[in-house]
Amino acid sequence: MVDVREAITRAHHEEWARVVASVTRRFGDLDLAEEAAAEAFATAVQRWPADSVPPNPGAWLTTTANRKAIDRIRRENKRDAKHREAQTLWDDPAASSVPLGAIDDDRLRLIFTCCHPALAMETRVALTLRMVAGLAVPEIARAFLVQEATMGRRITRAKAKIKAARIPYRVPSAEDLPGRVSGVLAVLYLVFNEGYLATGPGTDPVRHDLTAEAIRLTRLVRALMPQDGEVTGLLALMLLTEARRTARVSASGELVTLAEQDRGAWDAVLVAEGHRLVRERLAAGAAPGRYQVLAAINAVHTSAHDVRDTDWSQILALYDQLVRLDPSPIVALNRAVAVAELDGPEVALAAVDQLEERLAGYHAFHATRADLLRRLGRGAESRAAYGRAIELAGNTAETAYLTRRRNQLG
């Protein structure tokens, strides 16, 4: 029974997007696709323990979901209208063609549909996290710091708008791609980050299924747009971050910071590919965007064989460049970490404290303050800051790490 439950969980992680995309392509209705996929997984929970796990779980789930969709259409007595709509809107050659001989992937079609500019940016991200990544509404609500009911309504409205506006299910044309890709990259980056530091109780602290899916889809976007620097930059950033995955959580389930990680455990193949992509963009001579600068920062970190060899002056220079591109308080917070290494914790703390009003609800702000206060010998203040960071952190491994650091203060 345990093996069957694990198989269903694994199938949900690996096959959810395929099932939703397949049903969407056939029937042209995101609501129907999501409901049919959910019913297919519910059927698997009932039948697989008795019938055993099928040899191809993805094919079984897709077939079952399609049958569930047809049953639902029949029950609603709208089969003919649904079929006409699917035929005219979703299955015509123009709507289903992929430009320039690009990779034909239903999940890529689905993500461009969910990221359509007719939707607000935060709605695009939320919808994609639900429809493509398969995150539950509570998980997405936590990522946006909103109520679960609010997020549920937002996703429902987004699906209704796609249907009402007859937004096509396809990869955009070559002329439309440059204008559309930034929203897609924002979605993919958030999906990756949800896997990199998963939120919510009961989830693994690192969800490789999400990071792997984000990397896979980013590779597909890069195949469509090989000359786009930000696509390449995001892929490099993901690879250099993913390379450290196995070293990021200890055997006891605690976060291991970059400074404390066993660098010999990093994935050398991913590091090499990430570095190659960063060099490729540098050689292009074009002004870098946000993802390219973030990738370059990670390239500096992963170039050091020992944390003591880290070129903090180069990292700070890159953060200065990033601040001009993205003057957000989170970038300023990360820049302060580099400042601490070069100018000391007191200078860095002064910079961090200026961000309190904007980052009071962000756990990393309090964790950074706690560390700087600890380094300055201000134990009571550090302990309080660690406590606030623990209250706000949603990742189990991070909470364990912060708790240990607080307890070390006595």
What are the main properties of this structure?
71% helix; Rna Polymerase Sigma Factor, Chain: A
If you had to describe this structure to a student in words, what would you say it looks like?
Residues 87-103 have low confidence and may be disordered. The radius of gyration is 23 Å and the shape is globular. By secondary structure, it is an all-alpha fold. The longest helix has 26 residues, at 2-27. The protein has helices spanning 2-27, 30-51, 57-75, 79-90, 93-96, 106-114, 121-131, 137-144, 148-164, 177-196, 208-224, 229-242, 268-284, 290-303, 312-325, 329-343, 345-353, 356-359, 363-375, 379-392, 396-408. Among the domains are: 1-95, Rna Polymerase Sigma Factor, Chain: A (Orthogonal Bundle); 102-165 and 176-226, no CATH class; 336-410, Serine Threonine Protein Phosphatase 5, Tetratricopeptide repeat, CATH 1.25.40. The chain starts with a helix and ends with a helix. The protein contains 21 helices and no strands. Helix 10 (177-196) runs parallel beside helix 12, helix 12 (229-242) packs parallel to helix 14 (290-303) and helix 17 (345-353) runs antiparallel to helix 19. This is Sigma factor-like helix-turn-helix DNA-binding protein. Keywords: Sigma factor, Transcription, Transcription regulation. Residues 18-78 form the RNA polymerase sigma-70 region domain.
